[in-house]
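Morning F.,

Quick status update on the modeling queue. The single chain you submitted on Monday has been processed. Sequence for confirmation:
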Amino acid sequence: MDLDVFVTAHRAEWDRLDHLLRRGRRLTGTEADELVALYQRTATHLSLIQSSAPDPTLTARLTQLVARARATVTGARRASWRDAATFLTAGFPAAVYRSRHWWIPTAVLSTLLAALIGWWIGTHPEVQSALGASAELREMTRPGGQYETYYSSHPAASFSAQVWTNNAQAAATCLVLGAFLGIPVLLILFANMLNLGVGIGLMASAGRLDVFLGLVLPHGLLELTAVFVAAGTGLRLGWTLVDPGPTTRRAALAQQGRAAIGMAIGLAFVLFVSGLIEGFVTPSGLPIWARVGIGIAAELAFLAYVYILGGRAARAGDTGDVEESDRTAELPTAA
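Structure tokens below.
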């Protein structure tokens, strides 16, 4: 394609579209129809230029022109409480449900890794010695030691807020860094499972594994599930770079990225609940069975939320992506 000839042939249309977009008054019916037609033609021109004779300056100008025209044609839509309700009852659980083939294996393998690390540390005194002096380890694992006092070391409200902030940042990091082929996600997962495995191993060697699980399970079930969901979604985003599927890599990444952003918002609510449990239930004077029962109830409620509401929404076609009208226009690709 001769770019100069193409520009000469269509510059008047682009200038006319720009003129219509700059009009300060309401367009007439005829002008509105003309704007829509020019918008469609300009979008096609942009696609042809991108595929046949890419020119950075011209592409930038037409991209901006098409974006302005699309905003004018479709109109701006303001978010409402109804959007938030739809997101929480359909979009977010559907996104979690659709990514279950990623986060469930992630959860199983990570849990097995933590258990294996715990067994290795708990049954090998030489490994324990490498982790710290005997006196330090006894101080950590004894009744009233650091493992037990950690959860009551600060006021419940401030502790919950701190835990929620840290966990939300970790989940968001997994989602964002998943675009780097998922490698940072694996490192974050390993660090978390290593910390859990060390606690399991040291408390088991001290004969107090039941106490440790009674402190971890009330909030840890829901908290770790949220981390596994974030990690699985991050890994799925990374795999999209390798195998984008039937769409273009750019379109696939955009769709998965938008869903990941929504996932981060939804998981922040989930981690808020686990933070409340960690701040108010875990260090409470309730018996172990009651504290663990609350954790199990919270976990089952989340899974029911995902599999009932999310499954229903996913079967209805919800992907967790934003509404089609709010997405960036996908231009046709020339053969």
